[in-house]
Specification:
Elements lengths: L10 H15 L15 H14 L4 H17 L5 H19 L2 H15 L5 H14 L9 H18 L4 E2 L3 E2 H18 L8 H15 L8 H7 L3 H30 L20
Antiparallel strand pairs: 1-2
Helix pairs in contact: 2-3, 2-4, 3-4, 4-5, 4-6, 7-8, 7-9, 7-10, 8-9, 9-11
């Protein structure tokens, strides 16, 4: 499912693609969260994210890789932690083959061969890739939250630009910041396995709503967003709470770290992410 701006096309075609994504979403392998190795999942996901950033991979790739890893961890309780690290590499390499350009696949393939050198042979790694593909019956080109969030933002941002709230307090450009925040909350969703239980479209909707809360945009969940996503405020509110708590904890950690680094009593604020303000829909 290579990355394309399908949401910018003909309206009828966009509607057909979105409908297809929703149908495919209903066929996804259900996440159970029963792996005995959940305690190292955060480490594996962080490692995947670092590699994805180093190789300039798309968000589509890292989200697909984590999707595959989660389902494998669910089904394979016998794997040890060292083997799971190799499995994570296989998931990332498979994901990039489906989501990235060919030159990216070649670069990552070379990297993986260097990393696994001395651990398992290249032939064994290839067999592992095949095992992963067969586990999913080769149906690994699946929709993730990233595919839905791009579409939802294509509706939400123009609607925001038309409103009086496009500039916040005369300083913050809401359309720009809502994109920053949604990416931020997507990253949070990867780190916490509880979000893997959610449908990708529900996760995407929750990320956008959480972003609107942080930006103090009212109403928090507009009629346009509800009609576009098919999710009501009641459907997403509990997930928003989890995301906002994670954001608040991260913000405090960032401020504490900044204060320790500069020896400040009054801590500075990050420029790319506005301070957390929890103002819900009235």
């Amino acid at each position: 499912m290579a990355e394309t701006n399908w949401w910018d096309g003909d309206k009828d075609l966009v509607a057909d693609i979105y409908s297809s994504l929703k149908k495919e979403e209903g066929k996804l392998v259900i996440y159970k969260g029963t792996s005995p190795h959940l305690h190292i999942r955060r480490y594996l996901v962080d490692w995947l994210a670092v590699q994805a950033e180093c190789f300039n991979m798309t968000s589509h790739t890292i989200h697909l890789a984590v999707f595959l890893l989660d389902r494998i961890m669910d089904r394979d309780n016998s794997s040890n932690e060292a083997h799971l690290h190799i499995v994570a590499m296989a998931c990332l390499l498979i994901a990039t083959k489906f989501e990235d350009k060919e030159d990216m696949v070649i670069k990552l393939g070379r990297f993986v061969r260097r990393v696994i050198n001395g651990i398992i042979s290249q032939e064994e790694f290839l067999m592992l890739e095949l095992e992963v593909l067969e586990m999913f019956q080769w149906r690994v080109s699946v929709p993730t939250a990233v595919h839905f969030i791009d579409y939802f933002l294509s509706i939400a941002v123009p609607d925001l630009e038309k409103s009086k709230g496009s500039v916040i307090n005369g300083k913050y450009n809401a359309p720009v910041y809502i994109r920053k925040y949604t990416k931020y909350f997507l990253d949070i969703s990867l780190q916490n396995h509880s979000f893997s239980f959610m449908k990708p479209s529900l996760l995407a909707a929750s990320c956008i709503a959480s972003s609107r809360v942080c930006l103090n945009l009212t109403p928090t969940w507009t009629r346009v967003l509800q009609e576009t996503t098919s999710y009501s405020w009641e459907d997403i509110s509990s997930y928003i709470d989890v995301m906002l708590k994670a954001h608040e904890a991260d913000e405090m950690a960032q401020l504490k770290e900044a204060g320790q680094a500069h020896g400040m009593d009054t801590l500075g604020q990050r420029e790319d992410i506005k301070p957390f303000v929890d103002v819900r829909r009235s």
